[in-house]
Amino acid sequence: MIKFLDLYKVNNLHRVEIDEAIKRVLDSGWYLLGKEVEAFEKEFAEFCGTKYCIGVANGLDALTLIFRAYKELGKLKENDEVIVPANTYIASILSVTANNLKPILVEPDLKTYLIDPKEVEKAITTKTKAILPVHLYGRLCDMETINSIAKKYNLIVVEDSAQAHGAIRNDIKAGAFGNASGFSFYPGKNLGCLGDGGCVTTSDEELANAIKALHNYGSHKKYHNIYKGVNSRLDEIQAAVLRVKLKYLDKENQKRREIAKYFCENIKNPLITLPLLGDKDEIWHVFPVRVKNRDIFQKYLTDNDIQTIIHYPIPPHKQQAYKEWNNLSFPITEQIHNEIISLPISQVMTNEEAKQLVRVVNEYKE
Fold it and tell me: How far is residue 273's CA from residue 362's CA, in Å, rounded to a whole number?
């Protein structure tokens, strides 16, 4: 069986160092907001090219806290509009509605599956105050154009970088293009911890200070609360594990790029729509392909011992949670969600597994 993602093997690559890092935390007797978190925040900010990084409990909290901080600072207010891709994972949108802001869904580009800047500009109104581009599947959005639009209309840009750790273009990495960015360190991410975790990156000192308080009960100093904050902190053990894995992230992302290139150059089945192959923009969090009869294709792969996942079967505007949107139509988004399926790809995939996958995919017939 070719697993979609073998987390045991992923973490076992660095098992000795991870064990040492966990022991270091246990021996310290300090488990929250300590030296490991402080060190990781410094190292990840340097990695991304930002001045600040604030560790939080998960990726959703990272985005939610950014919008919350902007509200506390008077940069956003309730019912302000935030432009969001219609084909994103629901967490992107939850971060907006959790702050009583209004998500405005726009279609992606079918070639990249990323938010279409032309649709962004069409959607701007006098109530638009922010854009939330999502670097879906590990590919960077067209941030140059999006930032140009944002500057033209004086909008905040918040990157959803939950799937794009280390993605880079023109020497700028995900997390450093916008005013702020949210990351997830869910175990399956390219940089994943051993549980939940996340962070915010920004070079805005005022915003960073607000988030540092908000994520710790609204407090910079114990028992002195300046905001009605929340408890959303990255713990010391997860930070220590992330410090180990961060050292190898660029190398492991490169391995994913090599596998993706092999897939794109060798999968020749006309029934399969392959993703665009770039240089080093993308870090291939997943390898998404499109197939008309997806369920048949997925069963075929399962029968041939290849595990797959669908990211994502139901678009946000068709979810019960947002039933007020259920009658909306986003044809490109719906086509993507009906056809997309993710093939296995990871830094621990062997050459033999990659060859087997290509052979099986090329032999697929409807």
Answer: 12
Nearest 5°: the CA angle 332, 336, 338 is 115
Number of helices and strands in the chain (H, E): 13, 13
Residue 143 phi, psi dihedral angles, 5° rounding: -70, -30
Q: pTM higher than 0.85, yes or no?
A: yes
Tens digits of per-residue pLDDT, 297-354?
A: 999 999 999 999 999 999 999 999 999 999 999 999 999 999 999 999 999 999 999 9
Is the pLDDT score of 279 beyond 80?
A: no
Three-class secondary structure assignment of 171-195 = CEECCCCCCEEEEECCCCCCCCCCC
Contact 294, 310 (CB under 8 A): yes
| 219-221 and 224-225 strand pairing | antiparallel
Quick one: which of 251, 260, 273 has its CA closest to 344? 260
For 34, other C-beta atoms within 10 Å of its C-beta total 16
| Coil vs helix vs strand at 32 | strand
For residue 312, say if its preceding peptide bond is cis, omega within 30 degrees of 0: yes
Under 8 Å between Cβ of 3 and 308:
no
**CA pair distance 205, 57, nearest whole angstrom:** 21
Burial class (CB in 10 A: 0-12, 13-18, 19+), 169: middle
